[in-house]
Amino acid sequence: MNPRPPIVLTGIAASPGFAAGPLCWLDAAAVAYAPKGSPAEEKEALAGAIAAASAAVAELIERSSGDTADILEFQLAMLADDTLAEPALAAIGQGADAASAWARALNAEIAGYEVAEDDYFRARSADMKDIRDRVLQALAGAEGTAAPAGAILAGEDIAPTRFLETDWSQGGGIALSAGSSASHVAMLARARGVPMVVGLGDALYALSGEALLDAKAGTLTAFASATEIDRHRAAAAAFDAARSSAAAYLSKPAATADETRVLTYVNIADPSDVEAIDIATCDGVGLMRTEFLFSHGLPDEEAQYRVYARVLEWAAGKPVTIRTVDAGGDKPVPGFTVHEGNPFLGLRGIRLSLSRPEIFRVQIRALLRAAVHGTLKVMFPMIAVPAEYAKAKAMFAEEALALSARGTVHRMPPLGIMVEVPSVAIAPEAFADVAFFSIGSNDLTQYVMAAARDNASVASLNDTAHPAVLRLIREVADFGAARGIPVSLCGDAGGDPALIPHLLKAGLRELSAVPAQLATAKAAIAEVTL
C-alpha cells in the first residue's frame, strides 16, 4: 500500500519561524452544564462564572505588560460591562439555563464582530469567543486542556488567553483556517517568536497527526515524506542560525558590505516597549504610534505629554519620530472615529484629526510641550494633498503661539509626512516644504496593488517588491536626495531581510523596524553591496 501523499496548504505568514509537531485542535468540545432549576439560581451561577472568568483574566494581566496587558484589559472591560450579560439574563428570566443563555447571547455578539467592515472588529471576534468559552467553562467547573509540548495549535482562530497560557518554551506553532495577521495573537506571536500562519482555509480540518509549519513561506504540510521532513529541518536550522548570527550585528552601526552607512531605527507601539530596548543598538525611533493612548477613549493633554516625554528622555538625544494619531480604518476609537462602509478609503489618519480639531489640538499641545525633553520629530499619517499638511502645520503654529502667551515651555519640532497614499509618492514635488518623508510601506503597497495584506486570497499581490511599488519608493528617495529632504521607511518592509536589498538599491538609507527584527535587519544590510 502506497503511503498517503503529502498535503501542503498555503496561507499568510503572520509570525515567521518553523515548527514540527502534532496538530492540536483549538475548537473545544462543548462542556456539560447541570441546570440549577430556578431563574434566581441560574442568574447567580452566571454571575459567579463571570466573576471567575474576570479573576482569571486579571491574574494574567498582573503577569503581563504593554500590548499584552492592553489585550487582556479589553476582555476584562467587556466582562465588567453589565450590558454584555443583559440578553443572557433576559433569556434566563424566560426559562433558559445559564449556559445556553450565555452561549446564545455571546454568539450573537460574535456574529456581529465577524461581519463588521473593519478588520479591527473582525479580529476582536477571537477575544469575544475567548470570553464566551471562559464563562462556559466556569459554569461547568471545567478547566482548559493543555496542549502537548511542541504542538501546532490548529483551528479557526485562537484566543489571546489561550496563547498566553500555552508553554512555548518547547517549541510549537499556530495554524489557523481563518485568523488575521492584524490580530492580537499575531502581535503576541511576533513579539515572542512563535511561528504562526493564518488563512489556511477549511482544508485544514482534513489534516491530522504530525505536521510541518513553515511560517516563513506561509505553509503547513501534513503526511510529509522523509525527504520533506529533512528539507523542513534544514530550513528551520538555517532560520535559527541566521537569527543567532544576526545577534552579533545588534550592537554595531548598520552598514552595507561596501561600508555605506544605513541609519536603523525602531518602531514602537507602546511606551513600555522601550524598557526592553538598549538605545545604543539603534539610531532612534523611526515610528512611535500614538493609537495606544486612544485605545480606551480620548486621553487628556497631561497623559499624552507624560508618555511622549518619557520616550524622548529614554532616547537620550537621539531622534524620536512620533506619528499623530492614525485612528480610523482598522483602528476605531470610541468618541472619535466614525463607522464607514469603506474605512480604509474614508475618514482616517490626518483626515480624521483635521475634522476633529478639538481633539487634535490636545495632542498638538502635548507634543509641543514634550519636545523640550529630547529630539522630537512629528509626522502626519495619510496625507494625500498639500492642503492637509498646510492645515496641520498651521495648527501647530497656532498652538505654539498660545503656549507662548501662557508662558508654557515648549518647542516646535520638525514636521514631516507619511508617504502611504500614492498621490504623494507619484508627485512628491507638491510637498517640497516638508521637513522629512517617512514611507509607510504597508499602506503604500496595499493602495498601489489594490490588495489587502490580511486577505489570504490576494496575499500574493500584496508585494512591496513589485516594480510599481519600488519605482515609487525610488522616486521619493531620489526627490528627497535632490532637495535635501530626509527619507526613511517605517513599514514592515524595513525589517524584512528579503526586501531590504530592494529598498537600499531603491535609494533608501534610513530604515525602521520593530525591535525583534532590528538585528536581522542589520545583518541583511551588511550583506548588500551597492
Structure, described:
With 530 residues, the protein is an alpha/beta fold. 43% of the residues lie in helices and 14% in strands. The longest helix is centred in the N-terminal third of the chain and has 24 residues, at 39-62. The chain starts with 6 loop residues before the first strand and ends with a helix.
Q: Helix and strand layout, with pairings?
A:
Elements: E1 7-10, E2 12-15, E3 18-25, H1 39-62, H2 66-80, H3 82-93, H4 98-114, H5 119-123, H6 125-140, E4 152-155, H7 160-165, E5 173-176, H8 184-192, E6 196-198, E7 210-214, E8 219-222, H9 226-246, E9 263-268, E10 285-288, H10 301-314, E11 319-323, H11 350-355, H12 357-370, E12 375-380, H13 386-406, E13 415-419, H14 422-426, E14 437-439, H15 441-449, H16 467-483, E15 487-489, H17 500-505, E16 510-513, H18 518-526
Parallel strand pairs: 3-4, 4-5, 5-6, 9-10, 9-16, 10-11, 11-12, 12-13, 13-14, 14-15
Antiparallel strand pairs: 1-8, 2-6, 3-7, 7-8
Helix pairs in contact: 1-2, 1-6, 2-6, 3-4, 4-6, 9-18, 10-12, 12-13
Q: Which terms would index this structure?
A:
530 residues, alpha/beta, single chain, 18 helices, globular
